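Researcher: Go.
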Amino acid sequence: MKVPFLDLNRQYESIKQEIDEAIQRVLDSQQFILGYEVEEFEKKMAKYCGVKHAIGVASGTDALLLSLKASDISGGVITTPFTFFATAGAIHNAGATPVFADIEPDTYNIDAEEVKRLLGSKENKKIKLKVRAIIPVHLFGQAAEMDPIMEIADEHDLVVIEDAAQAIGEEYNGKKVGSIAIGCFSFFPSKNLGGYGDGGLVTTNDDELADRIRALRMHGAKPKYYHHVIGYNSRLDTIQAAILGVKLTHLEEWTNKRRENARFYSKALADIDELETPQIAEGRRHIFNQYTIRVKDGKRDNLKEFLEGHGIGTVIYYPLPLHLQPCFSFLGYNKDDFPATEKASAEVLSLPIYPELRKEEREYVVEKIWEFFKRW
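Model: Structure:
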């Protein structure tokens, strides 16, 4: 049996008529740039996230970049070294400097105690500039510990930007991510709410910030042809907005199916001592953008090879932490600086979790994992 890590064709086939009609509406309108569908999708996203403003941009990376620029962030920005490159890349490209803090070993999210330690250490050699912001990442679909992060930010007068690229619909103590601070979302095709190309969105309750981001996405113009700041060409395409508007109506159903698949995996794999299933922290919903297990005793790569040899797709998120990436060597970090992060990079493995995963496929995945550990 073949079990792909992700099969977007199945999702498309299930909503093909709705999607095709939405695309046709845009073609009929010929309004491809910030057309009606963009405005409507922004309204729906603002309501879904529980915020005043939702601003569509060209990608999740641009959502981070424009949020940093609109907040006039320079100096240091504390974030996690265990995330996709875009988080730290956007910090650098905004003219700021990534400052890394280690993760919680159970949730893989940034450790608020480590953030506190960084800000309180006068001897920390990595902070040679004033820290201006924190970007917690809600990794794999589970929210970071936002209450203490917001308390730290208030104490030190820091801007907080939620990297919610993997966490649309996730909740922290009853609040949707992206409503606690400035929210940044990605609509990359593999996301829980994925477009048919790149796309992103910023959420905020701050009227002035929303206006600045709207100007920045249009070359800094307000009104058109009058440029008070140097901006970017970073707009959510109308066709993508139309597609996402359709898919948003199905998001809760798809999320529930992901959570059902996760419950099945966690129950079926619970008795394997060499394996740790995802830990859900108190007050979280966890929407499982990824279902990520931890494989102990140096067996992760062997398990990956075994599963793929039996037709099961898996992915390692992420094999090399950001502080060890060659392009960030100038930051001065070394191996063993972040032990929880480096241990996670050596042990994590993500399994197929998409909503259209069939019962017999997830059972086959579990069967082969058990077979592997019985052999070992």
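Model: The chain has a mean pLDDT of 96.
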